[in-house]
Amino acid sequence: MSARTPLPTVNERDTENHTSVDGYTEPHIQPTKSSSRQNIPRCRNSITSADEQPHIGNYRLQKTIGKGNFAKVKLARHVLTGREVAVKIIDKTQLNPTSLQKLITRIF
């Protein structure tokens, strides 16, 4: 049995500036012809240029395929293999001790 390595935590609110009514952030990319990049948010695991999709590591985040009280599930595609996976993005600000325990139980 191999040990599991946790994925890095990514807060979408740090990578985007569009927040929906329910508090979740949808990836929103607007193409720009301006050479100035002062208004483009920066994060090592997110957008690197205006015409790229948000990503986590080697996975490009695509559409939202599910939502819950403290998380949403995004379809993601591995950039090298093209394999599609589901990525759960957890909004840690919505977690209380009870929901955190439920989450840990589901993961492990």
TrEMBL record:
Report the residue ranges that make up the Protein kinase domain in this protein. Answer: 59-108
Highest taxon of source: Eukaryota
Molecular function in Gene Ontology: ATP binding; protein serine/threonine kinase activity
Q: Which GO terms describe its biological process?
A: intracellular signal transduction
Q: Where is this region: Disordered?
A: 1-40
Bias category Polar residues: which stretches?
31-40
Name the keywords, alphabetized: ATP-binding, Kinase, Nucleotide-binding, Serine/threonine-protein kinase, Transferase
What GO cellular component term, any one, is given?
cytoplasm
Q: Which reaction does it catalyse?
A: L-threonyl-[protein] + ATP = O-phospho-L-threonyl-[protein] + ADP + H(+); L-seryl-[protein] + ATP = O-phospho-L-seryl-[protein] + ADP + H(+)
Q: Please tell me where ATP binds in this chain.
A: 88
> What Enzyme Commission number(s) does the record list for this chain?
2.7.11.1
Q: What is this protein called?
A: non-specific serine/threonine protein kinase
Q: Which gene encodes it?
A: MARK1
